[in-house]
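Q: GNAT family N-acetyltransferase, please. Structure only.
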Amino acid sequence: MEFEFLPLGKDTKRLSALRESDIYVYEDETILGYGAIFQQEIRALFVCPSARGEGVGKSILEFLLAKISGQAKLFVAKSNWPAIKFYQKVGFETTKEFIAEYNGTPVQAIEMVCSNKKC
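A: Structure for GNAT family N-acetyltransferase:
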């Protein structure tokens, strides 16, 4: 099922989660992406569309993993295959599937945990 992302100002749950997270920005003359972590959870990883495929996401993820003590985990929409493939390539595995709610819409989601020693 498709869903539409809300701007952060209208998404109080996601905004609250980001505010309690440590946020790191990747820039090279301009901002190309960012990542956010809270304890062992990667709460956000975003790369500007113009910078995708250039190693920015991998750099951000490696930086976040170096900041996490213990086993890293994240949650992703099951329909987000590009992200899932990216995380699997690094060593994340799906540990459970569940239905989450986003903006009043049920969304199939998965929890992924890093299963290799890099994490």
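A: Brief note, in case it's useful. The beta strands are 22-28, 30-38, 41-47, 73-77, 92-102, 105-114.
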